[in-house]
Design brief:
With 222 residues, the protein is α/β, with parallel strands linked by helices. It folds into two domains: 147 residues, Rossmann fold; 66 residues. Helices cover 41% and strands 12% of the residues. It has a six-stranded parallel β-sheet with strand order 3-2-1-4-5-6, sandwiched between helices. Helix 1 crosses helix 2, helix 1 crosses helix 4 and helix 2 crosses helix 3. The protein starts with a strand and ends with a helix.
Amino acid sequence: MVIVFDLDDTLYEELTFVFSGFKAVSIDLSPLIGIHSELIYEGLKKELEIKREKVFDRFLQKVGKYRQELVKRALSVYRSHSPTIHLYPTAEACLKRLQQHPLYIVTDGNKLVQKSKFLALKLAPFVKRCFFTYAHGLHRSKPSPYCFEKICRLEKVSPSRVVYIADNPNKDFVGIKPLGFQTIRVLTGPYSNVFIDEAHEAEVQIHSLNELDDKLLKRLEM
């Protein structure tokens, strides 16, 4: 069985990347706007609690320091910083446990940001390849099956021999299930309590990657 993992909120907590980015932005902006970095950091977190969109814009407006060039600078620092993030302990154990299988990652998002996460998490020794979907064009991000079909060709297997483990029912499974790919949803991250419909849901649900083992994989093969 070929095993493919999502990245954000499947192998690590994505919010830790956000906070790492906020730290980097806070340190960078502090001398430019005359506000202590810790106050900037706490202000950004408060804006995030309101909503995720335009966090830097809204914070700078609230403290009376808004300039478009500062927003662009903050976004650049956020996207290019070297993040302090770590695999879920269950994820690291799972990756080690399943090393006899071909392992891949398929992840959406800005390709430079996702690559920095991949490197920070030290995932290269565990997987054969990580597919950054945006590198192939936005139209080939999930729910497009494009990268999954590439994995089939690389491994010379049918979709029924490939299982995708991910957390987001909005996009992770709906594009590949009709083609026969196996799907497992891990109930972690912000979507853990989100349920849409059968078309968007995985065939199997687990609460932790501790449950992903050869016994479960053999059940999928039956």
